[in-house]
Design a protein that fits this description.
The chain is an alpha+beta fold. The chain folds into two domains: 2-111 and 312-373, Beta-Lactamase (2-Layer Sandwich), CATH 3.30.450; 125-268, no CATH class. It has eleven helices and 13 strands. The strands form three sheets. An eight-stranded antiparallel beta sheet has the order 1-3-2-13-12-11-10-9, with helices on both faces. The protein has a three-stranded antiparallel beta sheet with strand order 4-8-7. Helix 7 (211-223) packs across helix 8 (231-247). The longest helix is centred in the N-terminal third of the chain and has 21 residues, at 63-83. It is globular. Mean pLDDT is 78; it is low at 1-55.
């Protein structure tokens, strides 16, 4: 039954291509330029088959990766269309170089009505918070293993909350006690920290919560803007210095700014920004830190853990895929990094307008498909 649905979805996808439906628009990158080129399937040639197929660059992409990404992108477009998606995005980079970027607008809905030109990362924002921590470590000599209370005055007199480190908060070796879920989200950060001090932290062997990452992000923000009394504004300003400028990401939008844990779910990036993030994750010479440290944070330690720095491991994959993602409002995302020979490839997928459970099944099938084709 599942195979039949899969085939039907692909058939529907290519029927749209053949019929040149006017409501399918595709944005693409040529692989050599990380800027989105614009509408390739416009009103003159709407939804054409050529525009919907992925033109990978001729050089720099191995045959197995080319086959894996071409197949996965075609499957992705068909499955999203069959599931009734409004918009979807498929982005890939290999060894620090952009490979492809496609944005499918299936309904012809005005872009500002479906999230504008950006895609919300949801829980994958934690992976970017951990990158910012590595940037702070290298460029500003911040000791990620030191007690966070030594840097962050709001936590200096808050019991065991002051003794944990940014590394332990992001790595998931400690987490906030279960009562943290009862803390109202519409309070100020200072009130939030006061409440957390009453709850404390517990050791964890497997944590995927957002509270620890939000605290780590606020600590980074405070360190680089100690004079500000508004930690949320400090967060936005400091992450420009720590992350967006080094990665040359120009467009960042923020989500859930009314919630106290919003740093862990905050970011929405343009296709250009998503590609630059993937390039950093897979580069042998990233713009800050080292490739080894960036890769190491994606792998949980000890091996009994599943989550680390916003990433989780996927069992049953030959190339040990590490993934991050989640659902926020109408968007569900997944980003996976695969080992490929002596390097790595990164793939980000976003689906809008589909239930999270359905989107996750699509992601799971494509991770398996890509993993099965790369060496």
């Amino acid at each position: 039954m599942a195979r039949a649905r899969y085939i039907c979805a692909l058939a529907a996808f290519f029927c749209v291509c053949a019929a040149a439906e006017p409501n399918v628009r595709v944005f693409e990158s040529d692989g050599a330029n990380t800027s989105i080129l614009g509408v390739k399937a416009g009103r003159d040639k709407p939804g054409s088959r050529a525009a919907l197929e992925c033109p990978l660059p001729k050089d720099g992409v191995t045959a197995d990766v080319r086959a894996a990404l071409e197949g996965a992108q075609k499957s992705f477009g068909g499955l999203c269309l069959g599931a009734g998606a409004v918009r979807a995005g498929f982005f890939a980079a290999q060894n620090g170089e952009p490979v492809t970027a496609r944005v499918f607008d299936f309904k012809g809905t005005p872009m500002d009505a479906i999230g504008g030109e950006t895609f919300a990362l949801g829980r994958a924002s934690i992976a970017l918070v951990s990158l910012a921590a590595l940037s702070a470590e290298e460029n500003f000599s911040l000791n990620l293993d030191a007690p966070v209370g030594g840097y962050f005055s709001a936590l200096r007199s808050s019991g065991d909350i002051s003794k944990v480190s940014i590394e332990s908060l992001l790595g998931g070796t400690v987490c906030v006690g279960a009562l943290a879920g009862k803390i109202p989200q519409y309070i100020s950060p200072s009130e939030y920290f006061d409440a957390l001090a009453q709850i404390g932290f517990v050791d964890s062997a497997d944590s995927s919560g957002t509270s620890g990452a939000a605290i780590a992000a606020y600590a980074l923000a405070y360190v680089f803007d100690t004079s500000s009394k508004d930690l949320k504004k400090s967060f936005v300003r400091s992450f420009r210095k720590l992350l967006w400028d080094p990665l040359q990401i120009k467009t960042v939008k923020y989500r859930r700014a009314d919630k106290v844990d919003f740093p862990a779910l905050a970011f929405a990036l343009s296709p250009d920004g998503i590609l630059k993030w993937l390039c950093c994750e897979t580069s042998p010479n990233p713009p800050f830190s080292t490739a080894l440290k960036i890769a190491r944070r994606r792998v949980p330690l000890p091996p009994s853990k599943r989550y680390s720095h916003g990433w989780f491991t996927v069992g049953g994959t030959r190339n040990r895929a590490c993934c991050t993602g989640g659902a926020l409002a109408a968007t569900t995302s997944l980003t996976a990094v695969f080992s490929a020979g002596s390097g790595s490839i990164g793939v980000s997928m976003f689906i809008e307008g589909v239930e999270a459970g359905v989107a996750e099944k699509i992601f799971k099938s494509l991770v398996s498909e890509i993993d099965g084709k790369i060496k």
